[in-house]
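Example record

One chain of 174 residues, shown exactly as stored in the release files.
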Amino acid sequence: MPLQLLKLLLLLLLLRCLKAESPQCFHFTWIGPYDNKSNIAKESCDARVGDFNEIPCEMPLVVTPNDTVPDVKALWKNETLNREHYLCQMSPGYSCVKYSYIFKGGIQNITYMCAKVNNSNGCYRETQATGMQVEACVCTSKLGLIPCNSSPTALSRPILGLAMALLSVFIAVK
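Predicted structure tokens for this chain:
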């Protein structure tokens, strides 16, 4: 009986690790320091970007209580929050991108998105004449793991590999 229970637990673990249809990317814009946080629901990317079409912006717009960069690890782990609202499926030919504006060492805003890009994985930084730095980091997410346009975590992959190995052993023994 304990062997059957262990097999069931391993199968449930595998299903939980593989529940996403395709790899995901974070998909939202943190607008940076923002005084009137109660007005964020009335804001839109069109209103914020205006005629500057080259500035990426993805809905939803996000603010944080203390104006710090969003904790995307906490967002990923928070199962009570509708995190699907902040994610996009990484379609074939697309990558995850984290696009940041940095001024005097401080991050002014960040847009997380799925995008078709011409560059390979890595970060690219450009300094403008105003001193503003624009950084684009491109990566490819893995199925079942936290989107790569955040700080990566390696916890799910070893668990998935271990569960598959143990399940194979139990099937072979039977």
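Notes: The longest helix spans residues 156-173.
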